[in-house]
Amino acid sequence: MSSESTEQHRALAAAKGPVRVAIITVSDSRTPETDTNRQWLETAIPEAGHEVSAYRLIRDEPADVKTVLDELADTDAQVLLFNGGTGISRRDTTYDVLSRNLEKVLPGFGELFRMLSYQTIGPAAMLSRATAGTYRGKIVISTPGSPQAVKLAWTELIRGEMCHLAWEIGR
Length: 171
Prior knowledge:
Elements: H1 3-14, E1 20-26, H2 36-47, E2 51-58, H3 62-73, E3 79-83, H4 94-101, E4 104-105, H5 107-121, E5 131-135, E6 138-143, H6 147-158, H7 162-168
Parallel strand pairs: 1-2, 1-3, 3-6
Antiparallel strand pairs: 4-5, 5-6
């Protein structure tokens, strides 16, 4: 796709209006009051012209991840933005659940995220299992749970393509 047609797609998608985003924090230790990712995203999403349509804070349990994935797939949210549970520890199961359920995978998201992370944290970036794809007509994005990772993913990858992602899936 040429950059001109990419820009045309973005412009057409942006003209369709704000995107509805669900924020899902996966954490065994955070509370709604200490969830700095939620707090930051609840400001950043509207600043980009979009809407926060739902928020969930769940434990990193496979059944909880699957339940919230299914629950939010039945709402008006167009993008399900997960943060947390993408590492390689025994407790990190978000990636495993999502990867089994994604209908189409967007491998470029994880690749680009790790490339950008490498510039900041070096080889430790390879430990991230950030991913994105589609599920039941929704865009699903999963990032690490560190505030730096959430901000990096939003500012460098998601924000500029939000409309394009959300409206392209409906074509």
